[in-house]
Amino acid sequence: MRAETLLAEAAAALLAAGISNGRQEAGWLLAQVLGEQPLTAQPCSGGTPLAPAVVARFNALLARRLAGEPLQYILGDVDFHCVNLLVGPGVLIPRPETEQLVDFALALYPGAGAICDLCTGSGAIALALAARLPGVAVTGVDLSPEALVWARRNGERLALANAQFLLGDLFAPLPAAARFAMITANPPYVTAAEYEHLEAVVKDYEPQLALVAPERGLAVIRRIVEGARRRLLSGGWLLCEIGEEQGGEVGDILTACGYAAVAIRQDYAGKDRVAVARWPGGAED
């Protein structure tokens, strides 16, 4: 079978399964099999017929995608901001809107002091910041042992000596004396009701622990806001990804906890996505 025929048949099957960019995904899957860059994986119809082993491998990957598995898990990696990250079962797939949190963080970083990234997952935010700020110590923390495996693999693969990862619940695994110029977080903030209506590609494959939080999705955000007061240096910044309907409540929580310069930033789609605030005083005891 020639590549063009294989791609056309795969694209039709993906489109029939409700995957709107079926042709593009078919190209990515074939690139994975051939070891090519995705953008060059569109062989012309006059090319050499593909070996049966290649076709079999492609069809195996296609079957996984048609069954609903996320494309990023099948490909094994994803580009995020300035880094390429390994991802797979047990870790949340980094989203494009989270890249904007990194941009906000880079713009607000005061120029000195360590950074802590909570609910780090694959290490996406922590490693992007470590790559862009090579002289800054960045610590990522996550409650999930499965997620930390991916974060540490990514840190080793990117050879970022200024990034480390700790296993534990939010601030608990940090040294008692650790203080930070910036704390970032992409915590679980989906409500139980919202979770039931998520797409199957998310709900059936990505870890619920990284998505859902009690108290209308605000429980973990509230703990981060309260705990960061004891970990931020004077003038330090807190940036936390939030749900698009949570901006008002999160802003109120930050203000009630004594933060200054409270703002809710929008994502590329114009939806509330990142809460930003500055801690005005020294770290609390």
UniProtKB/TrEMBL annotation:
Residues the record lists as binding substrate: 186-189
EC nos: 2.1.1.297
Residues covered by the Methyltransferase domain: 115-188
The UniProt record lists the keyword Ribonucleoprotein: no
One Pfam family it belongs to: Methyltransf_25
Catalytic activity of the protein: L-glutaminyl-[peptide chain release factor] + S-adenosyl-L-methionine = N(5)-methyl-L-glutaminyl-[peptide chain release factor] + S-adenosyl-L-homocysteine + H(+)
Keyword Transferase attached: yes
Keywords of this entry: Methyltransferase, S-adenosyl-L-methionine, Transferase
An example Gene Ontology molecular-function term: peptide chain release factor N(5)-glutamine methyltransferase activity
HAMAP family per record: RF_methyltr_PrmC
Annotated function: Methylates the class 1 translation termination release factors RF1/PrfA and RF2/PrfB on the glutamine residue of the universally conserved GGQ motif.
PANTHER family: HEMK METHYLTRANSFERASE (PTHR18895), MTRF1L RELEASE FACTOR GLUTAMINE METHYLTRANSFERASE (PTHR18895:SF74)
Stated name of the protein: Release factor glutamine methyltransferase
Taxonomic source organism: Oligosphaera ethanolica
Gene: prmC
